[in-house]
Fold this sequence. Notes:
- Keywords: Copper, Disulfide bond, Glycoprotein, Metal-binding, Signal.
- The structure is a single chain.
- By secondary structure, the protein is an alpha/beta fold.
- The protein is about 30% helix and about 20% strand.
- The chain has two domains: about 1-25 and about 165-183; about 25-160, Cupredoxins -  blue copper proteins (Immunoglobulin-like, Sandwich), CATH 2.60.40.
- It has helices spanning about 1-25, 45-50, 75-80, 165-180, and strands at about 25-30, 55, 60-65, 70-75, 90-95, 100, 105-110, 125-130.
- The protein has a five-stranded mixed sheet with strand order 2-8-7-4-5.
- Helix 1 runs antiparallel to helix 4.
Amino acid sequence: MESQKKMMVVFGLVAAVFLQCVAAQTTHVVGDSVGWIIPPNGAQQYVTWASGQKFVVGDFLIFNFTTNSHDVLEVPKASFDSCSSTNPIGNIITTGPANITLTSSGEHYYICTFGRHCQSGQKLAISVSASATSPGSSPSAPSPSTTAGTTPGVTAVPPSSSSPAVGAGFVLCSLSLVMGLFF
């Protein structure tokens, strides 16, 4: 009986630690309520947005845009700087909203390949840290000319700093400890 109690407590702690690790992932809604559009304030809009974020491997980017009006493509820095879709990293995402998981640390560059959207500022440069303890910063993007634009019908998903797994982890851990003490 004592052995079962210990196993239950250990299982509960392992499960709680696992859920806490999952909960550490952050969902970043690119541009917040503005979404992924030709920014009214030019490229500085996404530079400013990114500078207020901390990106870590395992985090999620959500690009809110209307399908057939915008797209998302990850590109190397040279292609980002020239707004070129040559040498893409992965496939172009044409259906909005686009959800991207950050799977590697380092600099990441995203552009919209529709018309002159990228030249008008619809581009995002971020720096992704390997872990939550590493400092993260966002590089500055060159400021191209400003062209106002909006994307009607885009529904922004509110940003969240953690997932519901935090509460689930707490409940599971508490329940496991209680069960271990009384059974």
